[in-house]
Amino acid sequence: MARITSANAFMVDLEPKVVRTDAIQSFNSQETIFVVLRDADGAKGMGYSYTIGDGGPAILSLLKETLLPRLMGQDADRIEAIWRNLLFCSHATAVGPIMSLALAAIDTALWDMRGVKTGLPLHILAGGAKSSVPMYTTEGGWLHLSPDALVEDAIASKEAGFLGSKVKIGKPTVAQDCERLEAVRNALGDDYEIMTDANQSMTSGEAKRRLPMLERLNIAWFEEPLPADDIAGHARLQSQSRVPVAVGESMYSPGQFADYIAQDACEIVQADVARVGGITPWLKVAHLAEAHNIAICPHFLMELHVSLVCAVPNAPWLEYIPQLEDIAAPMAREGGNALAPMTPGLGIEWDHDKLAALTVAGSAFEITEAHQ
Fold it and tell me: Who contacts 100 (Cβ-Cβ below 8 Å, separation ≥6)?
């Protein structure tokens, strides 16, 4: 048994590299919450979680006051037991984003520690299905961009080896959404995949009105057309659509994915490792999807998700949105394909000097066994 003896946590606030807007919000900043765990053998694991501009201090508070003190003295190898224990020690705050985002910071640190101690990279630890994965880019498809700008980015992406682009939709009229998508399709041709994302902005009727356009343009998927808690609405829409409905970035437990799958409300799941509570529940969602012959195409966090999509057989895409380049070495890639890291653990090469320089004042703290 290698008991956990200490934990450090801190937050870094990262500005987006480009303006990122969708139909309901803007990505103002990435509050990145880090947890560093150490065990009695001297092993260390570093994990992280994030928000898009709000809630970071609440996550830190939950870690400091409740979760990390309870973690002290636990066997670091028993990741499943730890995850469930922490979930139920404050079950009144679950299921929800703050609890899941806090759990994810701990869970990813534990998996990192396991990889370091075994000498294995995450994608091998978690399954080892493949060593690379195609990417599609979202970075040039934001809602405020003009059709010409969308086309320019998609052409550059295709030339760089990418096989697809995501275009945000949810303009006031169907015609405006159609103009944007047709511009990209006409310029890039039929072999280039175009994904769409409405970011929960539509009523059932407005989403239904867009189905003929999406089908005619051979769109790869229709992401989050309705509010995430409208399972019945997504089920009705999927039954009427030849374009797969994709959901998941706004779900916070495997059970929510199970409900969607049971009601035939989607054909692609997009579990976010941070928002679903870590690697441990992410893998449950991936295997649940595989058992139902459904793909998992995760949301954001490409530097961490690259290992997870390479761990499982039913993950055909990785979303390209670079965000960690100020604090970590760039993710390895060959053209439009991301390569699974081969270093032990999460495989993210953090720049610790930059992390220290960018740590939000007053956010750092340490918990030790004496806090039990």
Answer: 94, 252, 253, 274, 275, 276, 277
Q: Which amino acid is at 238?
A: Q
CB 95 within 8 A of CB 229: no
The answer to whether 243 and 223 have CB atoms below 8 angstroms apart is: no
Residues 6+ apart with CB under 8 A from 133: 306, 309, 310, 315, 316, 317, 318, 337, 338, 340
Q: How far apart are CA 181 and CA 188, in angstroms?
A: 11
> Could you tell me how far CA 75 lies from the centroid of its own chain?
27
Asked if 133 contacts 306 with a C-beta cutoff of 8 angstroms, the reply is yes
Burial 210-233 (b: 16+ CB within 10 A, else e): bbebbeebebbbbbbbbebebbeb
Please say if 168 is a catalytic residue.
Answer: yes
User: Rounded distance, CA 281 to CA 293, Å?
Assistant: 18
Q: What's the pLDDT score for residue 149?
A: 96
Contact 13, 356 (CB under 8 A): no
- For residue 293, the model assigns a pLDDT of 98
How far is the CA of 245 from the CAs of 60, 84, 235, 266, in angstroms? 34, 31, 9, 5
Out of 64, 168, 234, 305, which one is annotated catalytic? 168
Query: Rounded to whole angstroms, how far apart are CA atoms 195 and 205?
Result: 20
Q: What's the pTM?
A: 0.96
CA distance 259 to 246: 14
Amino acid at 314: N
* Whether 91 is catalytic: no
Q: What is the pLDDT of residue 371?
A: 57
Q: Give dist(CA 137, CA 240) in Å, integer.
A: 28
Catalytic residue among 123, 234, 299, 305: 299
Compute the distance between CA of residue 142 and CA of residue 158 in angstroms, rounded to an integer: 17
Regions of the chain short of the pLDDT cut 70:
371-372
- pLDDT for residue 91: 79
